[in-house]
């Protein structure tokens, strides 16, 4: 594969961005040790940038990020890529609007995942960001396309940018890596708040049309 | 609107104060990503200073705070103000003694809010600060005055400086922005402690006249 | 009261120590805003050093600590002392071996306190430090000797260096301020661990003679 | 015992490593005050390096680590070694492949330990790292070989690198000190996630052959 000078600059910027975004995973305590990662698509190319496998967050540098093609094969990098590379490559191949993917085992979201139970949409903030429940994907072993396929099939049937893979953890997506990280952060936050709400009773449901109203406004009006 | 030199100095100081107070929201983990904000009234003027919408806490500067009138319209600022500006402006218009307003989705308080359940006053610290239960306000969609009206009507019937808006989160008030932040911090603290107490049984009630006695002393004697 | 040159040096050192120990309260998240304090007896004198009332932990300096007599009256200091001064002075007057007192509303311990339920001794670490359950003291309003008396009467019937005052929070003692802070830290830690243990079933009891054996060893052998 | 120049260099490096690894225990909040420690075997020698007893994590230096023989007797060091030295020495004597041992009272793991309940393997991450449930060892008093013997007998019947000692806490092992620390971090993480999962229902079991498949892959493929 020939990489032109222009793409070089894009890749270089994405290496720095992907590397830096891991500090949001540690800031919000979504990960322990080395168990979580961020990737980004190289826009317009069948390439992605992803964390190396088993490297501590403190030791990450832009240069240590691994450049892979969308079959998950290494194109450039001295280190082996995340063991989640194949799953994330599958997502990029099948969801052309996705520019970033994040994987964590964040505590509360993974607890819902271990019960194979979707997080019900009982918070306005959750309606804003997820537009409904956070759905559950299938149990899938690592090693073939079953994780990637489970992520894609579940997310394509939902407004949610995050999926709880059964007994496993969270995969989140976004138009870029930063928005995928935001979805991972918000997913854990609503997983925790709804868990705690449910411990002492039943949250009040929000009617579907109001969930939709909140979602539409937030996607179009919020922010700068 | 003409802004005189004297008011300029006040606004400049409030921009710095409001900006800086957001670090208390992150210190006590009341907010994730960009989901919470602080505002302050410009004393003696129909103006308020508030966080810009969707900007990360790390990136806030005094200059990026937005000056609005009390209809929530921008008077000065390059950025769009918080999407909660209309609600907070409503509070300033209808509660003349309020000098600061804070909004968060802090975890435990929002869990109570999602069940539409007031936090019972079973802690002396809660009697001190809240003078009784933390009340619940109505479910209200963003976009008109219904959030602002819900906040004001609920707080006017209570000693509490904080209200749990159903399925949504916390709004707190104070004579200035700092005391509104304090109320937001204390609200999450009592929401968490009473939640945990209730998980394993029933807290001992505190008789109403003792709640009142604690509240009166604290409001008049505590601090410098 | 005449304060000699020698006592001056002691007081100066205690001001620095008491001030610095507040950073352990924030490090272990035992306190929010200004709601907790440390004091130390001036050995051999009817004097104590304590945190000023309502001052933020970030703003504490050795000079801002307040010197009081053991009736709780200010001897030296520009600021009003903690509103817990009277209670802590009572402890120093009635427990001559106590050199330090700490007060917090730490979350899990205060949750047990709000149910008026002692923390059962089901952890070896708890046997080491507390020698049995952490006991509950009476509900008592601030303003006279009832809090101090409740602390003293409860601790005199127990090996525990910490007491849960009903609906209120924790008071802990030690031969000096540092050991009282340690007891406050350990009290929250065991309150949290036993709470979590109890959420999913019943901890295995530890027989009394083994609690005693652990306590005796730890008090005599542990550390340097 | 004569210590040759070559072994000196190894011991010096291990002192620095063991000292530094304690910062992972505090980073992940596995320990409070001084209640937890790391040790490492000196490869090829009947020697170990361990934390001194009762010293604050902030005050640890490589030089303050204590060199002991595998009977737990001090070989070099001005300070008394951890009170867990005898138990850890027993592990090194009876498990020749173990190069590092860690002891904590981390909250969620200790909660399971206080109920004498193994943590069921319901997370893929747990299958990866532990290869099955985290087992429970016997109640054992400090002072003879009963803690060490309980650790060894429990771990020898399990794939897990961590054991929950009843009413006590966690001991974890690894081929070196860093991998033992990783096991301690992961043990608390899965103890917390499975606890939270269980609070609202029953996690979906993972069939044994899939646990084995995940364990085998992770031990052989993950990382660099």
UniProtKB/TrEMBL annotation, chains A, B, C, D:
It is an enzyme of class 5 (isomerase). GO terms for biological process: pentose catabolic process. Its EC number is 5.1.3.4. It comes from the Bacteria. One of its GO terms (molecular function) is aldehyde-lyase activity. Keywords: Metal-binding, Zinc. Its cofactor is Zn(2+). GO terms for cellular component: cytosol. Residues 16-195 form the Class II aldolase/adducin N-terminal domain. Gene3D superfamilies: Class II aldolase/adducin N-terminal domain. It catalyses: L-ribulose 5-phosphate = D-xylulose 5-phosphate. NCBIfam families: PRK06557.1. Belongs to the aldolase class II family. AraD/FucA subfamily. This is L-ribulose-5-phosphate 4-epimerase. It comes from Aeromicrobium fastidiosum. The lineage of its organism: Bacteria, Bacillati, Actinomycetota, Actinomycetes, Propionibacteriales.
């Amino acid at each position: 594969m020939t990489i032109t000078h222009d793409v070089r600059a894009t890749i270089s910027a994405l290496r720095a961005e992907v590397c830096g975004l891991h500090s949001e995973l540690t800031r919000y305590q979504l990960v322990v040790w080395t168990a979580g990662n961020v990737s980004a698509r190289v826009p317009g190319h069948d390439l992605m940038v992803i964390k190396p496998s088993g490297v501590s967050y403190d030791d990450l540098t832009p240069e240590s990020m691994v450049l892979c093609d969308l079959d998950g094969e290494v194109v450039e990098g001295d280190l082996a890529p995340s063991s989640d590379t194949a799953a994330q490559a599958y997502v990029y191949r099948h969801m052309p609007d996705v520019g970033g993917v994040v994987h964590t085992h964040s505590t509360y979201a993974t607890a819902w995942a271990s019960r194979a139970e979707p997080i019900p949409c009982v918070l306005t903030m959750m309606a804003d960001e997820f537009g409904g429940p956070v759905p559950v994907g299938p149990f899938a072993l690592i090693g073939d396309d079953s994780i990637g396929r489970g992520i894609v099939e579940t997310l394509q049937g939902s407004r949610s940018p995050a999926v709880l893979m059964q007994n496993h953890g969270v995969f989140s997506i976004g138009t870029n890596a930063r928005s995928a990280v935001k979805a991972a952060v918000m997913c854990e936050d609503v997983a925790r708040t709804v868990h705690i709400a449910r411990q002492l009773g039943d949250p009040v449901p929000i009617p579907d049309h109001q969930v939709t109203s909140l979602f539409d406004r937030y996607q179009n009006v919020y922010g700068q």
